[in-house]
Design brief:
Layout lengths: L25 H4 L1 H5 L6 H4 L12 H4 L3 H16 L11
Length: 91
């Protein structure tokens, strides 16, 4: 039976790379969803807003650049019309 070296017990292995799956844009994969991207559709917009009311960045959500611009514009319009809250923090 081999004994473990106590020095290497808490260290992480170096050189191991994780292969991440590429995120797909939901609007490019579904054209009907792209047509539904409107300030009048708060149910769709809430998918791209965090719990605190912030717009989720595209590196996390996987949305293309052009659709991210449209998405943020529509979220801001919906906020002004009070369809989507600015924040959800209660004091």
């Amino acid at each position: 039976m081999a004994f473990r070296n106590s020095r290497n017990q808490g260290k992480k292995k170096r050189g191991t790379k994780r292969i991440r799956r590429r995120k797909l844009c939901p609007f490019t994969s579904d054209p009907q969803l792209a047509e539904a991207l409107n300030y009048k559709n708060p149910k769709l917009l809430r998918r791209f807003i965090s719990e605190r009311g912030r717009i989720i960045p595209r590196r996390i959500s996987g949305v293309n650049t052009s659709y991210q611009r449209k998405l943020s514009r529509e979220i801001k319009r919906a906020r002004v019309l009070a369809l989507v809250p600015f924040t959800t923090v209660k004091y």
